[in-house]
Write a structure and sequence with these properties.
The complex is a heterodimer of chains A (156) and B (462). With 156 residues, chain A is an alpha+beta fold. Chain A is built from four helices and eight strands. Classes of the chains: A alpha+beta (156), B alpha+beta (462). At the A-B interface, β1, β2, β4, β5 and α4 of A face β1, β2, β5, β6 and α6 of B.
């Protein structure tokens, strides 16, 4: 189970970054656009940019994934590791609404804490989304500092 | 490189304005992702990444040298994915030194220099650069402005500023002309000039331009903050997106505090509250540090190496003039005592209470803090003579001989402190003014009745 604070951070307008690995072992960094902790506390539903070819290819058929969620105002961050199911393009209203709410919250946080114009932030908004379910096996503290990388919880 | 992109196209991404992330993977294919505090371009094919908290990243790279970094241009928010191959780790040398300076500058914002330091610089070769999303160009007025970059007009404008400085007859005029010229001729709207104190431990603001409060007399300890680091290292210090950087250092500071390591302390950011970029350039003459010239901007990436060079030239001109003025003032022959002009009758009906604390020269006017240190002692000495002897005319030479001022015998900074006092009195609208009456001479103007109170450690006024 995720503790309530961690779940709240991940579901907030945090900055979401994603790492996947290609068949040749090459890592790939990309962004996430909304995350929901599912009721079983082991799985999360992650929204990705459907046009992110590298991430889509790496996760085709499922693959290892790392996801970092960082609070915009405090930089408190956690990293999830686990395995993602193959992402599928989604036009489901609930998924699109989740992505829209995430970006609105994320952009507002960045705008209010750093003054970045919303018009600039809008350039990060994808035109299409894909969604995947991630089975989380490890959770780490990733807040910048000497404790970065410390395990928070291991899900059996 | 793909997309016909070159590392030089990504220069602004490396200013640290928007956090970058790095993804690595272990030999058995487990990915890891974390934030980077700094990326530096080494040459057209290589970048250096700061390695501070990278324990997992370092382990992965030992097994699998490939990495993927996401960076964002802070002015357009174009996002780039840079594919890297780890080459080596450096713990000394010019690349390490540059990256260490970057990290030290960030650490200095939160007083973390002792614990938040660069252990190593990891050098990577760039395999490819990809623009991750193709979006319509951002409207010019919707984005941030980047640094202006090289401008052919800068040379002639610097020459004009130099000519104006060469016509200044005294230090007070010089600092005003410098900061006015930086705004009018070179477009630096928010600037300040700080000078080194008598003991070489602190910098004090002697003038500023473009702020609501002039902040004359505010102090920075050498080594603290970006301005203090510029003085300590005698090298320019530049940082962008201060909101982001301060957030990062606060997070790191909290993490250290939770581990019981070094409490850290906030370095107050003087003056502008919405600044995003700060450039501090040392002002040196004859190998000596005389002060620091600072430019600030509300834009997140306002300055680059061109600005460092431009302000460096101006800082050197100012330092030379300040040093020359100080030497000239010390050599100027003046009568041992100023003429005994009695104080004119003050028609003022008000009485102003001056409280003075000899322990550090702190001086208050009607309960409001005015100044401390040498400048406070100078004022106390002048007001004492005004009250007891009715004197209003003084010479620099006689005042600087007053032992109660506690001036060092070498490089006593007297003229600078006198100007600081003059500007501070004017800034506070005090009923006491200092007016220059000739080379090495000045007049004390008092438009109030005075009540002088000195407080020793026993707190009893005398």
């Amino acid at each position: 189970m995720f503790d309530p604070q961690t779940a709240a951070l991940l579901e907030s307008g945090c900055s979401i970054s994603v790492a996947t690995v290609g068949p040749d072992g090459a890592p790939n960094a990309s962004r996430g656009y909304g995350l929901t902790v599912l009721a079983d506390g082991v799985h999360v539903r992650l929204l990705l940019d459907a046009d992110d070819c590298a991430a889509m290819t790496n996760l085709a058929g499922g693959g290892a994934i790392a996801v970092i969620g960082a609070s915009v105002p405090t930089l408190r961050a956690v990293q999830l590791k686990g395995r993602a199911a193959e992402p599928v393009a989604t036009s489901d209203a609930a998924d699109l609404d989740r992505a829209a709410r995430h970006m609105e919250s994320f952009f507002t946080e960045v705008n209010s804490t750093e003054g970045t114009p919303l018009a600039l932030l809008e350039r990060l908004r994808p035109t299409a989304f894909a969604v995947c379910t991630v089975t989380v096996t490890e959770v780490f503290d990733q807040t910048p500092g000497p404790g970065a990388g410390s395990p928070l919880r291991t899900v059996p | 490189m793909s997309d016909d992109l070159d590392l030089r196209d990504l220069q602004l991404c490396f200013e640290g304005a928007v956090p970058a992330v790095i993804a690595t993977a272990s030999a058995d294919g487990v990915p890891n992702i974390t934030y980077l505090s700094r990326v530096r371009m080494v040459d057209r094919e290589r970048v250096a990444l700061s390695n501070q908290f990278f324990s997992k990243t370092a382990r992965n790279l030992a097994e699998n040298p490939r990495a993927s970094v996401l960076v964002i241009d802070p002015c357009t928010f174009d996002q780039y994915r840079v594919t890297l191959l780890y080459e080596r780790t450096e713990r000394s040398g010019p690349t390490f030194d540059r990256l260490r300076d970057d990290v030290d500058t960030v650490a200095a914002l939160h007083g973390l220099q002792d614990v938040f330091c660069l252990r190593a610089a990891d050098i990577y070769r760039v395999i490819s650069i990809e623009k991750t999303v193709q979006r319509a160009p951002v409207p010019e007025q919707a984005g941030w402005k980047g640094p202006a970059g090289p401008d052919p007009a800068t040379g002639p404008r610097l020459a004009e500023l130099s000519a104006r400085l060469s016509r200044c007859g005294d230090l007070n005029t010089l600092v005003e002309v410098t900061l006015d010229g930086l705004a009018e001729l070179l477009g630096y709207q928010h600037t300040m000039l700080l000078l080194v104190d008598e003991h070489g431990q602190r910098l004090y603001t002697i003038a500023s331009h473009g702020y609501d409060e002039e902040g004359v007399g505010s102090e920075v300890v050498l080594g603290e903050g970006i301005v203090g680091m510029a003085a300590l290292r005698c090298a320019p210090q530049r940082v962008g997106n201060l909101f982001q950087v301060q957030k990062y250092t606060r997070a790191v500071g909290r993490a250290y505090a939770e581990e019981g390591i070094g409490p850290g302390h906030d370095i107050p950011m003087p003056l502008l509250t919405d600044i995003q970029s700060r450039l501090a350039v040392p002002a040196m003459a004859m190998g000596h540090l005389l002060g620091v010239l600072v430019a600030e901007s509300p834009q997140p990436v306002a300055f680059d190496q061109t600005d460092e060079a431009t302000l460096g030239v101006v800082a050197a001109l100012v330092a030379g003039a300040v040093d020359g003025e100080r030497a000239r003032a010390a050599d100027t022959a003046s009568p041992p005592h100023g003429a005994m002009h009695p104080a004119p009758t003050v028609a003022a009906v008000s009485t102003t209470r001056i409280r003075y604390f000899p322990v550090d020269g702190s001086t208050f006017i009607d309960g409001d803090y005015l100044i401390k240190g040498v400048a406070g002692r100078i004022l106390w000495s002048l007001l004492g003579q005004y009250e007891s002897e009715g004197r209003v005319e003084f010479t620099n030479r006689e005042v600087r001989l007053d032992r109660s001022l506690e001036l060092p015998e070498y490089r006593d900074n007297f003229e600078n402190r006198l100007i600081l006092l003059k500007r501070r009195l004017a800034e506070r609208g005090a009923p006491i003014r200092i007016e220059k009456t000739g080379r090495g001479r000045f007049r004390l103007g008092v438009t109030t009745n005075l009540r002088l109170e000195s407080y020793d450690r026993g707190e009893r006024p005398r």
